Amino acid sequence: MPEEGRNPSSAGGGLLARSGNARVGDRVAEMVVQGGTLEASEPFDRARALSAFKLSDNLFYWATRIAALSVLGILGGIILSLIVGAWPAMKAFGFEFLWTQRWAPSAQPQPVLGALGPIYGTLVTSFIAMLIAVPVGLGIAIFLTELCPQWLRRPIAIAVELLAGIPSIIYGMWGFFVLGPFLANTFQPFMISIFEGVPVLGAIFAGPPSYLSLFNAGLILAIMVLPFITAVSKDVFDTVPPVLKEAAYGVGCTTWEVVRNVVIPYTRVGVIGGIMLALGRALGETMAVTFIIGNSFRISSSIFAPGTTISAAIASEFAESDGLHQSGLILLGLLLFILTFFVLAAARLMLMRLETKAGK
Amino acid sequence: MTTVMDNAPSISPIYARRRRKNIIVRVLCVGAALFGVTWLALILFTLFWNGLAGLNMQIFTEMTPPPGSNTGGLLNAIVGSLVMTLIGVGIGAPLGMLAGTFMAEYGRHERLTSVVRFINDILLSAPSIIIGLFIYGAVVVPMGSFSAIAGALALAVIVTPVVVRTTEDMLLLVPGPLREAASALGLPRSLVIRRIAYRAARAGIITGILLGTARVAGETAPLLFTALSNQFWSLDLTGTMANLPVTINNFVQSPYEYWKQLAWAGALLITLAVLTLNIGARILGAERTSK
Questions:
Q1: Which of A104, A228, B110, B164 could bridge to B96 as Cys pair (CB 3.0-4.6 Å)?
Q2: C-alpha–C-alpha distance, residues A116 and A100, integer Å
Q3: Sequence-distant (≥ 6) Cβ neighbours of residue B145 within 8 angstroms
Q4: What is the crossing angle of helices A43-93 and A24-33, to 10°?
Q5: CB contact under 8 A, A71 and B118
Q6: Contact B47 A170 (CB under 8 A)
Q7: Considering only alpha carbons, which residue of chain A is nearest residue B159?
Q8: Could you report how far apart the first and last alpha carbons of chain B are, in Å?
Q9: pTM value?
């Protein structure tokens, strides 16, 4: 350091002489940061240093800009590759694909494929999942923000967030080995015997009990999105200004009245956004469902019968498929992508609205 | 009604009704919390119970067994998973960091930024099996075969949005005066970002990368038809490579008891890895906020 101070021009010149090196900008920057020996260098060197700066500046700017554009490129690539892959099936089946129930990849002379079964399964399992997970998830979020003693809040909140990160195949395994047998032996016979003979419910809860069923898949999905709904709604509930809640408690509201009349109205958009985000997950979830749904393309009125979802159908058949069969599976994927895209886009727009509100 | 009146004879009926309703809802909320926690505790309990029973040194020293065999481990699958995750993060993290940098530093008020942010948020929760289909169409078909590199690319596509999101958020937290001070000293823009902003946001960005790694460590669906799997030791990136999630997927549905035991052990390993990464990310994040 003192040496540089004594003879700044030679030190600076020495460094800049190596300006062919791409790191020259960095070195000069080091000097600027460390107190600047640059001002004494010759005009020629200064010009070269500046142009080196300019070059690396431009390179970095374009690198970041291209990276940002590549995010759009990924989306474009996904859409394009799905459409290209699905094209033969689109041409062969047209819109009939949407409401054909038969799925016969090895039929002659050409496969007969219809998406109705998987679409039905996807919607039913997601509906069951939401029916269970939304009330429970909101209940836990209310418990965490309003009822839980302060010292317990952080541990539970952390546990919930960690559980949201557990890979879905773990849930699938557990559903396959533990939940499926349990439901088939206890819960399903019980429901079947209760609703036997009741007009509509009797058909929904019809036997025989089975390890692999739409209901089992819906329940495992519910358990899976539960931490997710809880985490999002807890975050959303935390955006309510404490003053509002304190004012309500101050005029004598009960906890339920505060939640019902202050917290929920204030966060409604965000809660719905969070629920739709969870719905997006449930619709596209693959591994938690594949083991336990039975991969049957037939539509049955009973939720205890095996079925399939779009993602489960792709996961279990894609690797062994070819030709039109594979194209049909990609078309299923395209349908799933369109479905989740709109659900997720709506969710994001709602959450964005809440953010701007909270920012005000 | 009567019990409430007995306990507090002076309460008006309206208040009694409100109080009763409140108590019911409170009980339901506590019940919901217990319900949720019970399921999740059950899952973790089963996982640890079965996983620990199957865990031994063999798992880390031997290859995946052929059908019917009662010895063997998961060595090739563990190594394959590590290789693909590392390559995936190695591609996805820098890409995500650069994109996040653009959004927070250069294009803060550009239209492009809000479009990218919106699309990125959607990619963040897009079904992972769709990403598998994308890579199948974009990489596997042109290459003509399933390959580890295709699997790694699929993972990279999943990591990128996570890193984009956290990098942008963390850079936005860096105070402007820090950048202004650096600019006033004559630092060009790119160096202000690399030397000042990155350094200030380092903990947060590393947190994001750890979270992204945790996210892909257990991903199965996109690997099913990109990397496929393999029973043998292989480090060839252009061929199929064994990996933990797909191995678990195959073993769970097998008829052999020993394979199922291996699947549980593998599942426990993945869960432990994911939890460690998540906790590590949390500790880093906590350090940042406490500063």
A1: B164
A2: 6
A3: B238, B239, B240
A4: 120
A5: no
A6: yes
A7: A71
A8: 54
A9: 0.85
Residues of A within 8 A of B285 (CB-CB) are: none
Q: How far apart, in whole angstroms, are the C-alpha atoms of residue A251 and residue A245?
A: 10
**Integer Rg of chain B from CA:** 25
In three-state secondary structure terms, B11 is coil
Q: Which residues pair with A104 in a beta bridge?
A: A112
Strand, helix or coil for residue B229: coil
Chain-chain contact of B129 with A280 (C-beta, under 8 angstroms)? no
Amino acid at A135: P
Check if A83 contacts B (Cβ < 8 Å).
no
Residues 6+ apart with CB under 8 A from B238: B143, B145, B147, B148, B149
Per-residue tokens: B205: 């960005």
For residue B121, the chain A residue with the least C-alpha distance is A348
H or E stretch at A319: none
Nearest residue on chain B to A349, alpha-carbon basis: B118
Answer positive or negative: Cα dihedral of A336, A341, A346, A351. positive
Do B190 and A57 make contact, defined as CB atoms within 8 angstroms?
Answer: yes
Summarised one tens digit per residue, pLDDT across range A192-245 is 888 877 777 877 887 777 888 899 999 999 999 998 899 889 988 988 999 999
**DSSP letter, residue A147:** I
Quickly tell me which residue has 């596509």 as its tokens.
Answer: B157
Cross-chain CB nearest to A173 (options B19, B99, B252): B252
Provide φ and ψ at A197, rounded to 5°. Answer: 95, -20
Q: Does A85 touch chain B (CB under 8 A)?
A: yes
Q: What is the mean pLDDT of each run of 10 residues along chain B (291 residues)?
A: 52 86 91 87 91 84 79 86 94 95 91 92 91 92 88 94 93 92 90 91 91 90 83 80 88 85 91 91 73 46
Q: Which residue in this structure is represented by tokens 């930024």?
A: B113
Do the Cβ atoms of A167 and B217 come within 8 Å?
Answer: yes
Q: Is B220 within 8 Å of A158 when comparing Cβ atoms? A: no
